[in-house]
Amino acid sequence: MTEAKTLYEKIWDAHVVDQREDGTALIYIDRHLVHEVTSPQAFEGLRKAGRKVRRPDLTLAVPDHNLPTTPRVDASGNKIPIADPQSAAQLEALEKNAPAFGIKYIGASDAEQGIVHVIGPEQGFTLPGTTLVCGDSHTAAHGALGALAFGIGTSEVEHVLATQTLQLSRSKSMEIRVEGSLGPGVSPKDLILHIIGVIGTAGGTGHVIEYRGEVFDQMSIEGRLTVSNMSIEAGARAGLIAPDEKTFAYLKGRPMAPKGGDWDAAVAYWKTLPTDEGAQFDKSVTIQASDVAPTVTWGTSPEDVVPVTGQVPAPESFTDASKQDAARKSLDYMGLSAGQAMDDVAVENIFIGSCTNSRIEDLRAAAEVLDGRKKAESVKWAIVVPGSGLVKAQAEAEGLDKIFTASGFEWREPGCSACLGMNPDKVPPGERCASTSNRNFVGRQGPGARTHLMSPAMAAAAAVTGKLTDVRDLMGANG
Ligand SMILES: CC(C)[C@H](C(=O)O)[C@@H](O)C(=O)O
Ligand code: SF4
Question: Which parts of the sequence belong to the Aconitase/3-isopropylmalate dehydratase large subunit alpha/beta/alpha domain (predicted)?
Answer without folding.
Answer: 9-466
